[in-house]
Amino acid sequence: METNDRGPLDVERFDLEPDRPLFHSRAGDVRAGDVRADDARHLDRDEAIRFLLTIADEQHLSPAMTDALTRVGRSPSS
User: Fold this and answer.
1) Cα separation, 45 vs 70, whole angstroms
2) Looking at the DSSP assignment, which residues form a beta bridge with residue 2?
3) Contact 3, 23 (CB under 8 A)
4) Which domain holds residue 67?
5) For the chain, give me the number of helices (H) and strands (E)?
6) Residue 18 DSSP class
7) How many domains does the chain divide into?
8) Which of 2, 35, 50, 75 is within CB 3.0–4.6 Å of 71 for a Cys-Cys bond?
9) 8, 52 Cβ separation under 8 angstroms
10) Is 0.70 surpassed by the pTM of this model?
11) Are 32 and 14 in contact (CB under 8 A)?
12) pLDDT digits over 12-60, tens only?
């Protein structure tokens, strides 16, 4: 697993391990079934940023990603 915005890569085989914690437990005790598209948790802007920072290594974010965080919920489209 690599979790920086300069080249993120993560392969988690939920078909083989359905109880595997997301992001190798960086997101806490969250399982794939907890974030299904039809049952996803809705995060407000601050919660979304905090969630992102628990997964990505905040100290290694690029300047572009750090700048993009200030625009979450306003201008980034993904």
Assistant:
1) 10
2) 9
3) yes
4) 1-78
5) 2, 0
6) T
7) 1
8) 75
9) no
10) no
11) yes
12) 887 888 888 888 788 788 777 666 555 445 667 788 788 788 887 788 8
